[in-house]
Specification:
single chain; two-stranded antiparallel ribbon; 5-stranded antiparallel sheet
Length: about 375
């Protein structure tokens, strides 16, 4: 099933490479952003714990400044947070609320609120959250939808909770994420461009192979793949293809030479047959002369048959079905027959052929092959 409707190998590889690179960059960005959020939360928690430790001695020393409902004069307004909640001291707020956005809430051992800087949107179960933070090892802070909370325990067992808004963290993370995404985008585009260049250089031998194969298909059998690097896969393939192309060229050259030689050899016995037939028809001859003429034509015909069989052997050789036979023949026995066939052609051109003493000569060829050589 073709899930990518692109037929080009170059664009297939480039598309998959860019897609994988984009996915990897996205995963890295998400991981880095999450790590950065965790680090910022941890730093803020450490900062709030420090604020709590700094504020705790002052809260203890100014505990007498905190009024309850029984000591409140009648003209004093009800305490902030309800009639059952002690009133906060502005002196405390001025002395230790130096960090903008830091809010405090102090509970006694019974969970009663002793001090707070803002009661508006604290969770209803603030005391339980604070005790859970103190009693849970490895858990230093708690996060809700808008604030980060930490809790410390005094020597007397009281619980002091400190919180800070997460807006500053989120704004910083948004800016950091934007810069990180921009850097990742630039990196992905750069790496994609670099990958495209490297891939194009790597596929150059493929284009050279394709061009060479096209030239050979058009008939240019001498075309070769230029400068293949034997140390690469495509270079080794190019070397093997060049060897195959050379063998193919040699095979075609051999066939051309054989066909040219066969054409010449076939023309000679055909000429002998036609010449003997024409001479026999010019005048009436004796039976012996007709028999000689027929014999010469038969010999020439057999020679043509031998050439045709050689062509069939060549075809079987190309198909891999040739079983070569080891034969031998005497050249001295073939020379008189070949000379006799050529005498008629020589007489037309006023050439005299004579045969002297023939030394015995044995060759490792069949009679047909030796006859063609003569």
């Amino acid at each position: 099933m073709n899930i990518l409707p692109i037929k080009s190998l170059y664009w297939r590889i480039q598309t998959f490479y860019c897609l994988a690179l984009t996915i990897f960059a996205s995963v890295v960005v998400v991981f880095v952003v999450q790590t950065e959020i965790g680090n910022r939360e941890q730093r803020l928690a450490s900062k709030l714990i420090g604020c709590a430790m700094n504020a705790l001695p002052q809260l203890i020393s100014h505990r007498g400044d905190v009024h309850d409902n029984h000591d409140r004069p009648e003209n004093r307004p009800p305490p902030m947070g309800g009639p059952d909640m002690p009133m906060r001291s502005h002196k405390h707020e001025v002395s230790y609320q130096e960090e903008i956005g830091v809010e405090f809430k102090k509970f006694d051992q019974a969970g009663t609120i002793e001090y707070f800087t803002a009661e508006s949107d604290w969770p209803a179960q603030s005391y339980e959250v604070g005790r859970a933070l103190i009693s849970t090892p490895g858990k230093s802070y708690h996060i809700d939808s808008s604030h980060l909370y930490v809790a410390v325990e005094t020597l007397s067992g009281d619980t002091l909770m400190v919180r800070h808004s997460l807006d500053a963290i989120y704004v910083g993370v948004y800016r950091y994420s934007f810069k990180l995404c921009l850097a990742a985008l630039i990196g992905v585009v750069t790496l994609c461009a670099l990958g495209a260049y490297i891939l194009k250089e790597a596929l150059k031998p493929v284009n050279v192979i394709r061009t060479t194969a096209h030239d050979i298909a058009l008939g240019n059998l001498s075309s070769r793949i230029q400068n293949p690097d034997p140390h690469t896969e495509l270079g080794s393939l190019s070397h093997d293809l060049n060897t195959s192309f050379a063998q193919l060229e040699d095979s075609f050259a051999t066939q051309k030479r054989f066909i040219s030689d066969a054409s010449h050899e076939i023309r000679t016995p055909l000429t002998i047959i036609l010449t003997n037939a024409q001479l026999s028809l010019r005048k009436t001859r004796s039976i012996e002369e007709y028999q000689q003429t027929i014999q010469k034509c038969l010999t020439a015909g057999l020679h043509i048959k031998t050439l045709v069989e050689a062509l069939l052997e060549l075809a079987r050789s190309d198909a891999g079905k040739l079983n070569p036979k080891q034969e031998s023949s005497q050249i001295s026995d073939l020379i008189p027959t070949e000379v006799e066939q050529l005498k008629i052609l020589a007489q037309e051109k006023e050439i005299t052929i004579s045969v002297g003493h023939i030394c015995p000569l044995k060759v490792s060829l069949g009679q047909e092959q030796a006859s063609r050589i003569l």
